[in-house]
Amino acid sequence: MKKRYIIGFVIFLFAIAVGLIIIYRIIFIPYGIDIDKLKYPITGIDVSKHTGKIDFQKVKEQSIDFVFMKSTEGEKYKDETFENNYLGAKESGIPIGTYHFFRFNKSGKSQAINFLSAIEGKKFDLPFVLDIEEWGNKTTKTNEEIIYEIGEFIIAVERKAGINLMIYTNENGYKKYINESFINKNIWICSFNKKPNIKEKWTFWQHSHKGKFDFADGWVDINTYNGNNAEWNSYLKR
């Protein structure tokens, strides 16, 4: 009987140890995959209010080549750190872009108005991005209705801004909303596979949600550009 209790206690301790290791990995170890930097030498980050305070001069000093920052979401929300992030990044001289988080249950046209009002008068080095993902998006709309509203947003922004919009999404969102409907759009893909599993050639690849740097208070999303240094320089000129 005593031996059985000892074995049970050991198993119990082992289970606790495994649980603590899993929790540690989830919370503290950056989640994502390693990228072959000989093949993909250009590294960037994307940030929002969740990233916390950012020292953009340190960003540039730590071999970060570009920054995408959240500006808006839905019909009315503006990211509370957008203005400071924009000014800090511009002062550092790092190439920047901005994105809008798309709400499935809101009008594409009204969301475009929100986005355009936030970026008015500002200058960017990278494309405007529409963030399409099911995470945090509860809706009763059909896929066809969602795709229509996405199209309305894209048309409104491109007519006003005069540039082509890029789409950010994950592999599931790409297959459901983008694959057959927006085949001419550049793609910024979020994927934790060793190679993004999409038909379209990707321009940017987000491969980690939990990068940790001393230039930011919180977690940082890490991205890579699909090209070498010469191609990156040419891309920036375009």
The helix/strand order is HEHEEHEHEHEHEEEH
Tell me the radius of gyration: 21 Å
Query: How does the overall form come out from the CA principal axes?
Result: globular
Number of strands: 9
Share of residues in helices: 25-40%
- Low-pLDDT regions: 17-30
Counting structural domains, the number is 2
Superfamily at the CATH H level of the largest domain?
Answer: Glycosidases
Distance between the termini: 76 Å
- According to CATH, the fold-level topology of the largest domain is TIM Barrel
Treating each run of at least 4 consecutive H or I residues as one helix, how many helices?
Answer: 7
Q: What fraction of residues sit in β-strands?
A: 15-25%
CATH class of the largest domain: Alpha Beta
What order do the strands of the largest sheet run in, or round the barrel if closed? 1-2-4-5-6-7-8-9
* pLDDT averaged residue by residue: 89
Helix/strand structural class: alpha/beta
Largest sheet: 8 strands, mixed, barrel
Say what oligomer this is.
single chain
CATH architecture of the largest domain: Alpha-Beta Barrel
